[in-house]
């Protein structure tokens, strides 16, 4: 019985305390919405006084002003270097995608905040999102306040040190008894009240009360401030960041400046970032380097380089800064020198750090709804029921969903297995959207593995028409087969050719998607090995392959197609060599022109890059970057083929005129090699095409020749089949063929020239004064080659 | 790639009819064009005439897959349906089995359906009748063979098997290599 009573009393007590902990005051309405919790809940404080005697034990331990200060000091010591790190890259993204495209870490938070209340809200209302967006802003604001507070505290730090003895005693007191503390707070509170205005002014420093001596120091400082021209605040900040630099500086500046100027000059110089001397960098090589200092140095360095004329150190030129920056970047982000140099060329310095930083975090997981099997709304509902936290992907896609977090593996849900969605990076949507395949068309996906884009094409075509999905790698084709069947795509032929052979296998496609193999510099976040494994030769090798592929892709397109005649070229690389340069090459080699991609965001492609000048229409191509669009680095260009004729003779001419300066400009040894190989490679198929056309024009007599040719090239063993292909080709190509005279070799160059000038006047600029001579040489070469081939034929 | 021989056609159609019955003729006579079965690498592919014509351009060793793969002939000339055929079995299936959400996972890992996981079953299902397995949300998950008739299913204890597993969509991940 007794026990029971005690229990009951205890229970009551608890209940009572429970109420006390935070009592709701019905008259005082609690604020709702984002913000600091303590700001909203005021009921408890007002009620607290009534229960104060009981509440003491339970209430959170209040610290005395000094212990708080000490704590702050401790925190500060740890925090100051990090503070900079926190500030850095969390910028929004530039375009409208900023709403959904947040760096992965952040977006996680967003997801949590939204929780899984009601799925429909994700769709109709953006209010929630906005709310969430507000939060970080507020946080930023708070940070600012804190910073201000910290600064003022910093000033106090020095003074505080003087009365450390006193504090020591207090410290012990604190630990012994909390009650004392509270009284002490009150004491100081009353004291402060007396001091009036100044106290009010000092409130910005966290509303903390000051010791008399501190106040005195403050006064002193204020006096100084009014006398001095600028505050010493900056001074304090910088001292921590680069101590050694400062030492150097002072030595110098003391020497140079007059006595009176020193104060001001010093301050000015503090902002200036100084290059470390030779001996320092040597030391760095030996000792383990501190990444934080390197990061700070990178920031300072970039800052100087951005405002070079004002912030530079006298006597140092840009080159020195850049070399240091390169070195620092490659150590901090662990890239090899080659890639860093390439990236520095590619981005303005302010963007460069953002880009490198974005490569350190993963892109958000995105999925694409398979509209052949379900609708996005249904899919989202089903996934939400499985505990997946998701959101629609931007305004630009009607089928994409972003996955923030999930309690089940997204790649193995029954919905996934049933083919209702496909795991696919946001950037992979873009080339297919640019391609915009129409129903009933014949589409070629030249490098299709693992089938994400292929299935997207199929769903845009609603399973009509025919898709030829090709990939050079038989192993990777298995995933294409799996995905195509899983997603219920039935209009696909999957084959395993090298893309370069393709126009010989079949041609006459309405649209071709070429997702060329590349160095993968846009997907460093996915595969960090790229950072160190790539060098100039790799880039050039893939650029060479890409050039071959793009030509064969263009040759596979049927320009006469009533609905299409388009080629989309894309890579997951951001190198100019693999993108603009390749497209520019194709523009010169074939009768194609760039057309708008139909993507309303992304950055324009380069028309000029270092010593290279590209066709002005290349600005119609689009580049996507991880830091500005929060998707993998990507390049998309859409080309329209306006004639099936392959400009053979003129291509020889242009090769000479346009390729030559490039070879000279790029003095890399591997560069010359591929371009040479290119030439020889090119001439053979182009000639073959030429003779084929002739054969078609001549009728049956020429057909034998086609067979012979195909045999000689031993591209495909089946001769008769080849002839069939040729026949098919003739059907499609009849239009342009009919207009053409038979003696092509003589007539062609002029005709082509006229064509060129009509189509693209700007190309004419490329033709240099000496082109006439070169032209003749080109023809000679062409004839010589032809003779050689004929000889070969005879021997065969 | 070649058309099926009469024998092969017979074996395959017999197998198919276990699941979709006389609906097979809906597969062959389609209003949206002629469709046909072709044999390639022992596998049977179902495709439209248009695609077939185009696929002739591709040499045999380079051709990986055309249209939809229905299944393959074993070395003993039996026909085995693959999970890839599910897209064509599910809409025409005569007998269906629905599994409870808890059992979905188990079935997708290749296990038989037990009485405890059985959600619904078509009336009058015979023993050893081919059935298509659905989740309760009507998502086709695979197919199998009924181990018991509908009547028996009512009576048996919860741990006894009611549907023998034959293929499930989990195979898209588990057996990706052998799909073709």
Automatic annotation (TrEMBL), chain A:
<keyword id="KW-0808">Transferase</keyword>
<dbReference type="Pfam" id="PF22458">
    <property type="entry name" value="RsmF-B_ferredox"/>
</dbReference>
<feature type="binding site">
    <location>
        <position position="515"/>
    </location>
    <ligand>
        <name>S-adenosyl-L-methionine</name>
    </ligand>
</feature>
<dbReference type="InterPro" id="IPR001678">
    <property type="entry name" value="MeTrfase_RsmB-F_NOP2_dom"/>
</dbReference>
<dbReference type="GO" id="GO:0003723">
    <property type="term" value="F:RNA binding"/>
</dbReference>
<feature type="binding site">
    <location>
        <position position="471"/>
    </location>
    <ligand>
        <name>S-adenosyl-L-methionine</name>
    </ligand>
</feature>
<feature type="compositionally biased region" description="Acidic residues">
    <location>
        <begin position="158"/>
        <end position="211"/>
    </location>
</feature>
<feature type="binding site">
    <location>
        <begin position="447"/>
        <end position="453"/>
    </location>
    <ligand>
        <name>S-adenosyl-L-methionine</name>
    </ligand>
</feature>
<feature type="region of interest" description="Disordered">
    <location>
        <begin position="649"/>
        <end position="796"/>
    </location>
</feature>
<dbReference type="GO" id="GO:0000470">
    <property type="term" value="P:maturation of LSU-rRNA"/>
</dbReference>
<dbReference type="InterPro" id="IPR049560">
    <property type="entry name" value="MeTrfase_RsmB-F_NOP2_cat"/>
</dbReference>
<feature type="compositionally biased region" description="Basic residues">
    <location>
        <begin position="63"/>
        <end position="73"/>
    </location>
</feature>
<dbReference type="GO" id="GO:0070475">
    <property type="term" value="P:rRNA base methylation"/>
</dbReference>
<keyword id="KW-0690">Ribosome biogenesis</keyword>
<feature type="domain" description="SAM-dependent MTase RsmB/NOP-type">
    <location>
        <begin position="355"/>
        <end position="642"/>
    </location>
</feature>
<dbReference type="InterPro" id="IPR023267">
    <property type="entry name" value="RCMT"/>
</dbReference>
<feature type="active site" description="Nucleophile">
    <location>
        <position position="572"/>
    </location>
</feature>
<feature type="compositionally biased region" description="Basic and acidic residues">
    <location>
        <begin position="787"/>
        <end position="796"/>
    </location>
</feature>
<feature type="signal peptide">
    <location>
        <begin position="1"/>
        <end position="21"/>
    </location>
</feature>
<keyword id="KW-0949">S-adenosyl-L-methionine</keyword>
<dbReference type="GO" id="GO:0009383">
    <property type="term" value="F:rRNA (cytosine-C5-)-methyltransferase activity"/>
</dbReference>
<feature type="compositionally biased region" description="Basic residues">
    <location>
        <begin position="29"/>
        <end position="40"/>
    </location>
</feature>
UniProtKB/TrEMBL annotation, chain B:
<dbReference type="InterPro" id="IPR002478">
    <property type="entry name" value="PUA"/>
</dbReference>
<keyword id="KW-0539">Nucleus</keyword>
<comment type="subunit">
    <text>Interacts with pre-ribosome complex.</text>
</comment>
<keyword id="KW-0694">RNA-binding</keyword>
<comment type="function">
    <text>Required for proper 34S pre-rRNA processing and 60S ribosome subunit assembly.</text>
</comment>
<comment type="similarity">
    <text>Belongs to the NIP7 family.</text>
</comment>
<dbReference type="GO" id="GO:0005730">
    <property type="term" value="C:nucleolus"/>
</dbReference>
<dbReference type="GO" id="GO:0003723">
    <property type="term" value="F:RNA binding"/>
</dbReference>
<dbReference type="Pfam" id="PF03657">
    <property type="entry name" value="UPF0113"/>
</dbReference>
<dbReference type="Pfam" id="PF17833">
    <property type="entry name" value="pre-PUA_NIP7"/>
</dbReference>
<keyword id="KW-0690">Ribosome biogenesis</keyword>
<protein>
    <recommendedName>
        <fullName>60S ribosome subunit biogenesis protein NIP7 homolog</fullName>
    </recommendedName>
</protein>
<dbReference type="InterPro" id="IPR016686">
    <property type="entry name" value="Ribosomal_synth_fac_NIP7"/>
</dbReference>
<dbReference type="GO" id="GO:0042254">
    <property type="term" value="P:ribosome biogenesis"/>
</dbReference>
<dbReference type="InterPro" id="IPR055359">
    <property type="entry name" value="Nip7_N_euk"/>
</dbReference>
<comment type="subunit">
    <text>Monomer. Interacts with pre-ribosome complex. May bind to RNA. Interacts with NOL8. Interacts with FTSJ3.</text>
</comment>
<feature type="domain" description="PUA">
    <location>
        <begin position="95"/>
        <end position="170"/>
    </location>
</feature>
<dbReference type="InterPro" id="IPR005155">
    <property type="entry name" value="UPF0113_PUA"/>
</dbReference>
<dbReference type="InterPro" id="IPR040598">
    <property type="entry name" value="NIP7_N"/>
</dbReference>
